[in-house]
Design a protein that fits this description.
This protein has 4 domains: 3-48, no CATH class; 56-140, no CATH class; 148-253, Jelly Rolls, CATH 2.60.120; 268-367, Jelly Rolls. The longest helix has 21 residues, at 28-48. Strands 3-4-6-7-9-8-5 form a 7-stranded mixed beta sheet, with no helix packed on it. Strands 20-22-24-28-29-26 form a 6-stranded mixed beta sheet, with no helix packed on it. The protein has a 5-stranded mixed beta sheet with strand order 10-12-14-17-18, with no helix packed on it. The protein has one helix at 28-48, and strands at residues 15-16, 19-20, 56-59, 63-67, 82-86, 97-100, 105-109, 126-131, 136-140, 156-160, 164-166, 174-178, 184-188, 201-206, 212-216, 226-229, 234-239, 244-248, 251-253, 268-271, 275-277, 286-289, 295-299, 312-317, 324-328, 332-335, 345-347, 351-359, 362-367. The chain is mainly β.
């Protein structure tokens, strides 16, 4: 195409790429020159599609190529040029590139120059870029990053029912629910500068009867090792590139200084069997017993279940119920009634006691016990 070689100075367009409008030109060249000019203009119109350059997409989602046929460029990009393409893959890094017409790869950024989310777009999204003189600015087509606040203003929901789940980078801005009667182990990949980079976030809620434990790989969460969600509890979790922070109604494991959001009554864990071992999720709650069968409640060793220091669990033995025995394993259970002594304790009917963890391997029991 010759349009890119035309001059804005009329006198310089006497003879350009087969178009002959020189002074004293042979009359037989007029029709050929006019037809060539018309073809050039038609090619430019077909290519630009109303001022936006399109072409054939190649490369990967992180290193895009856009081959324009014909090529409308001479030697370099021009500030203000716009490029439209249909994505063949989602980006997996925060600084993907696009190379249009083999003029060189340019970093794709968001308006204002900030890095992209991972992913920012999905396969088959229509993407519109504008060259600002340095980078390609994505001005339209970031469907994945905006999924949570699309035109419907709703969160995309990811419903999980298994006992294990690994959080995906694609869960960004989504609402992930867990619904299982048994305990669920959730793995949160390490916070990093790409797939789980700064600003990455998601909502999660436990709607099942079993506890949900969310454990980051290497990273911390609220400066602790995990978050435990009981039924009805939720968390908004976000990355800072290295670790995670959470706004949550659940419990932070390994950092007792973190408080849950809001106020409420104590969760009730009713036990009707003969044995029960304390587990993550019992912190701050009540274990109630009302049956005729004696119940043994075991405090597990710190090496088995590392409750944070400051953990408190209340035991209620209802009127008419059989005795409850509080059993300690390898750690120490001190009396908290003003009398020295350690070891297992018996809680009779019509009694309430509270277990408080005062050190890594030390607990104290207060209330009515023998």
């Amino acid at each position: 195409m010759a349009v890119k070689n035309w001059s804005t100075t009329p006198a310089s367009n006497a003879l350009v790429d087969g178009i002959n409008f020189a002074e004293g030109q042979n009359p037989s060249t007029v029709n050929d020159s006019a037809r060539t000019l018309m073809a050039d203009v038609a090619e430019l119109y077909a290519l630009n599609k109303g001022g936006v350059v399109t072409g054939t997409v190649g490369g990967t989602g992180d290193a895009i190529t856009l081959a324009t046929v014909p090529n409308p460029f001479s030697a370099a990009y021009a500030t203000g040029q716009q490029f439209l393409m249909k994505a063949t893959a989602a980006n997996t890094i925060a600084a993907p590139t696009i190379n249009v017409g083999a003029l060189g790869a340019k970093t794709i950024k968001l308006p204002g120059g900030s890095a992209l989310s991972t992913p920012q777009w999905a396969i088959n999204d229509m993407l519109l870029f504008l060259y600002d003189g340095t980078d390609m600015i994505l001005v339209s087509g970031n469907s994945v990053a905006n999924a949570a606040f699309a035109t419907t203003l709703t969160l995309t929901r990811n419903t999980q029912t298994g006992t294990t789940y690994t959080v995906l980078t694609g869960d960004r801005a989504k609402y992930v629910t867990h619904n299982n009667a048994s305990a669920t182990a959730v793995t949160l990949p390490q916070a990093n500068g790409t797939t789980f980079g700064g600003g990455w976030y998601y909502w999660t809620e436990n709607i099942g009867a079993g506890t949900v434990t969310i454990t980051p790989t290497i990273s911390t969460i609220n400066l602790g090792s995990a978050i435990v969600l009981r039924q009805g509890e939720w968390a908004l979790i976000t990355s800072d590139n290295t670790n995670y922070r959470a706004l949550t109604t659940g419990r932070t494991v390994g950092n007792q200084s973190v408080r849950e959001v809001g106020t409420r009554g104590l969760p009730l864990n009713l036990q009707t069997g003969a044995t029960y071992t304390l587990a993550f999720g019992d912190e701050g709650g009540i274990i109630a017993h009302s049956g005729a069968t004696a119940l043994t409640i075991t405090i597990p060793a710190n090496g088995s279940v590392a409750f944070p220091v400051g953990t408190a669990v209340t035991i209620v033995n209802e009127p008419g119920a059989a005795n409850v025995t509080v059993s300690i394993t390898t750690d120490t259970l001190n009396r908290g009634d003003g009398t020295a002594g350690t070891g297992n304790r018996t809680v009779p009917a019509n009694s309430v006691v509270t277990l408080i963890k005062t050190a890594a391997t030390t607990w104290i029991i207060t209330g009515n016990f023998t």
